[in-house]
Structures are given as structure tokens and as C-alpha cells.
């Protein structure tokens, strides 16, 4: 026979067991708009593990590829603003897409709150090894003499490397003709094979080809030389006042409470700044940053304003 006091204890225990877990007890989803195996996926899993350690709760990566990465922001935008669903994204989704897609189904400033700036990566301009230009100025002079030399490849129309080449052409006062490919691999094959003279790409994608002499990297897009190809000068060093580092960052749905934002941001920033992450990110050709919400917000707005005129000048209109 159960006493009255024991009965009350059992009732309270049953109620607590049936109550929903708090946000701090549930698993956190990091939603990524790209498939497993990509650099962004590896980064997301490294960040998830560090956040799991820092927060003491499960953190999982959920891949939602499709629509050039636009499905992931749409998913996170509609998720509860309780800190259990986050977005890990490259610059493109938050900076260039709003200028490109008229029917974008999310607002990068209204629908999200910045959490952490995770890492930078540079772009680069390379030429085929048979192109006689050894410097950016020599390449510009070649294009002025032979406009065909201004044909350049990128991995896709509407990609950041595409728009960076538009920025460079405007800065240099030359005409360059964009030749989009379906992916980085075919673009680089055409460059190595001499089917096209130049390519605007993510710098890490041409590192090995540059070192082997199959292509020649003429310039890197960062504010300073890349630690991965330190022999390649920046555009600015060579007299062209442009810069265009890309980045990865973490966001939460708008309306996420400030204390939750602070807690999640600290876990992500601490994780990125951990000593063992330096080598892991270097293997991905990423420069770890580890910046908080205010700094990410400022970088996001500055890049949004910078890329808008360039994208409009390109005349690019997406098919979807």
C-alpha cells in the first residue's frame, strides 16, 4: 500500500518525466546547405564537436543541400528561436545571394542573429602556365593587347570568384569575359589544358597546381598574403585596391534570447580558438578567426554593402 506522501512524490516524478526538456538539454542542430565531404561539412563537424564539449549537450550536423545552399537558411529561419537550430554558412548565402536572387525566401538581416565568425578563406586569379604574364600588371597589359586573354573560368556563374573577377576588371580598367563551368574541377582542367587563359577560383583549389608549375597564381584576394601560398602577392600589393576574403559563420534564428546567443557564441568562439583547431583548419586551407556576434554583424554588413555594386555591374541574372 502506497502512503499519501509517497503517492505525491510519484505524481511529481511522473510530471517531471513527462515535461519537455529545456533547450539546454536537447540536441543542437547545425544546419548546413552542402553535402557531406565538402570543406564546409568538415568545418561544421569540427565546430559541432567543440561546441558539444563546451556546452555539455549533443551537437549534430544536418546536411540540407540543394538550391545552391538556399534550403538551409530557409530551414533555420523557420525553426524555433530557442538555440537548438543554428545555421553554418559561407559568405555567399548571406552576402551575395540577396543581391542575386529576387525571390530569395529569407532576409539575411531580419531573419537571423549573428553568433560567431569562424574562418576566412581567400580567392585567387591564376593563369595557364603558358601565358607569358608573370605578374598581375603583365596580365593586364596582355588583356589590353589581346582581349581573348581576358576570358576567365570560374566554378559557376554567380559564384563569389565570378564576382571578384568583375571587381578586379573594374579596378584594372579592362574587359574580362566570364566563362562559367559546372564545378571547380572542370574549370581547372580547362585552365591546365590551355582551353582558357585564366581562372578566378578559391585560392586553396589552385595551391597544388601552382606549386607543381601547371598554373601560375598571380594574386590572392586577402588583406595580407595567404599563409598557404605566401609567395603569391595580394591584389592590393600590386596596385589594385581591392580585397575579397570569403568566410564561414554561424547564425541563429532571429528572436533567439540574448543569453542563449551569448552562451552559444562563446562555445563556438572558444572552440575555433582552441590550439588543436589551428592545424585542423590549416589542413582545410582555412584561417581561423573566432569573432563574436558584434564583429560578425559588422563584417556581414560591410561585405553586403561592398559586393552589391559589383554584382549589379556584372549584369548576372540567375536562372532560378
Topology:
Layout: H1 4-18, E1 28-32, H2 39-55, E2 59-63, H3 71-77, E3 85-90, H4 91-94, H5 97-100, E4 112-121, E5 123-128, H6 136-145, E6 151-154, H7 160-172, E7 177-180, H8 184-193, E8 198-202, H9 207-212, E9 215-220, E10 246-253, H10 258-273, H11 275-282, E11 287-291, H12 293-314
Parallel strand pairs: 1-2, 1-3, 6-7, 6-8
Antiparallel strand pairs: 3-10, 4-10, 4-11, 5-8, 5-9
Helix pairs in contact: 2-10, 7-12
Architecture overview:
With 320 residues, this protein is of the alpha/beta class. The protein has two domains: 26-120 and 245-314, Bordetella uptake gene, domain 1 (D-Maltodextrin-Binding Protein, domain 2), CATH 3.40.190.150; 123-238, 3-Layer(aba) Sandwich (D-Maltodextrin-Binding Protein, domain 2). It has twelve helices and eleven strands. The protein has helices at 4-18, 39-55, 71-77, 91-94, 97-100, 136-145, 160-172, 184-193, 207-212, 258-273, 275-282, 293-314; strands spanning 28-32, 59-63, 85-90, 112-121, 123-128, 151-154, 177-180, 198-202, 215-220, 246-253, 287-291. The strands form two sheets. The chain has a six-stranded mixed beta sheet, sandwiched between helices. Helix 7 (160-172) links the parallel strand 6 (151-154) and strand 7 (177-180). Helix 2 crosses helix 10 and helix 7 (160-172) crosses helix 12. The protein is globular. The model is unreliable at 9-20 (pLDDT under 50).
Amino acid at each position: 500500500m502506497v502512503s499519501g506522501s509517497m503517492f505525491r512524490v510519484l505524481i511529481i516524478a511522473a510530471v517531471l518525466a513527462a515535461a519537455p526538456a529545456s533547450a539546454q538539454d536537447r540536441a543542437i542542430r547545425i544546419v548546413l546547405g552542402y553535402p557531406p565531404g565538402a570543406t564546409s561539412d568538415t568545418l561544421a563537424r569540427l565546430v559541432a564537436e567543440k561546441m558539444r564539449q563546451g556546452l555539455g549537450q549533443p551537437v549534430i550536423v544536418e546536411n540540407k543541400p540543394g538550391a545552391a545552399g538556399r534550403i538551409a537558411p530557409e530551414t533555420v529561419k523557420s525553426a524555433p528561436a530557442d538555440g537548438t537550430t543554428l545555421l553554418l554558412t559561407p559568405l555567399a548565402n548571406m552576402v551575395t545571394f540577396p543581391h542575386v536572387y529576387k525571390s530569395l525566401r529569407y532576409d539575411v538581416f531580419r531573419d537571423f542573429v549573428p553568433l560567431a565568425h569562424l574562418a576566412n578563406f581567400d580567392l585567387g586569379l591564376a593563369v595557364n602556365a603558358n601565358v607569358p604574364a608573370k605578374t598581375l600588371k603583365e596580365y593586364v597589359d596582355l588583356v589590353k593587347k589581346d582581349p581573348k586573354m581576358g576570358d576567365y573560368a570560374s566554378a559557376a556563374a554567380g559564384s563569389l570568384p565570378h564576382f571578384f573577377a568583375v571587381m578586379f576588371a573594374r579596378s584594372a580598367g579592362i574587359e574580362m569575359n566570364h566563362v562559367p563551368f559546372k564545378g571547380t574541377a572542370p574549370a581547372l582542367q580547362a585552365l591546365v589544358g590551355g582551353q582558357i587563359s585564366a581562372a578566378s577560383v578559391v585560392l586553396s583549389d589552385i595551391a597544388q597546381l601552382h606549386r607543381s608549375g601547371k598554373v601560375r597564381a598571380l594574386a590572392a584576394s586577402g588583406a595580407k598574403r595567404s599563409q598557404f601560398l605566401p609567395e603569391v602577392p595580394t591584389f592590393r600589393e600590386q596596385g589594385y585596391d581591392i580585397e575579397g576574403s570569403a568566410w564561414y559563420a554561424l547564425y541563429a534564428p532571429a528572436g533567439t534570447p540574448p543569453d542563449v546567443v551569448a552562451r552559444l557564441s562563446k562555445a563556438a568562439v572558444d572552440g575555433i580558438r582552441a590550439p588543436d583547431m589551428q592545424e585542423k583548419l590549416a589542413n582545410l586551407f582555412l584561417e581561423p578567426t573566432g569573432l563574436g556576434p558584434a564583429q560578425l554583424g559588422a563584417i556581414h554588413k560591410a561585405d553586403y554593402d561592398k559586393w552589391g555594386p559589383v554584382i549589379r555591374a556584372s549584369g548576372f541574372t540567375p536562372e532560378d
